[in-house]
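Troubleshooting log. The previous structure file for this entry was overwritten by mistake, so regenerating from the original sequence record. Sequence copied from the archived sheet and checked twice against the printout by T.R.
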Amino acid sequence: MTDTPDTSGSGRPSVLFVCVHNAGRSQMAAAYLAHLAGDAVEVRSAGSEPADRVNPAVVAAMAEEGIDVSAATPRVLTADAVRASDVVITMGCGDACPVFPGRRYLDWTLDDPAGRGVEAVRPIRDEIRRRVEALVAELTGR
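Regenerated output below.
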């Protein structure tokens, strides 16, 4: 288990994934973390400027992995979501994410899947999975 403090009060680490539209990268990362860690980690995602829906190419790429994100809804980033998270992982949202003491912040530089077809989304998806697998191992010891 990591030394990441549990600031959520749930007894398990919590992770917030943030990107601009909460329609691609952060949705894929959150879905992978929920899929791979199960109940061992609390998962949140949000966007600094949320879109109306999850990117259809992201939905298709995740379906290829057996993960359904078609019902996911982009959410706006709030200070409360950051405050309730132990680890905050940003993906191209710049300075939009508020910073609070006691949180661990990571920035994952990843291509934005916006406006791309499923063929272009697959390598982004695969890189996100690789990073999430490493995060799961770190947070849960799995």
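Confidence is low (pLDDT under 50) at residues 1-6. Archived copy saved in two places this time.
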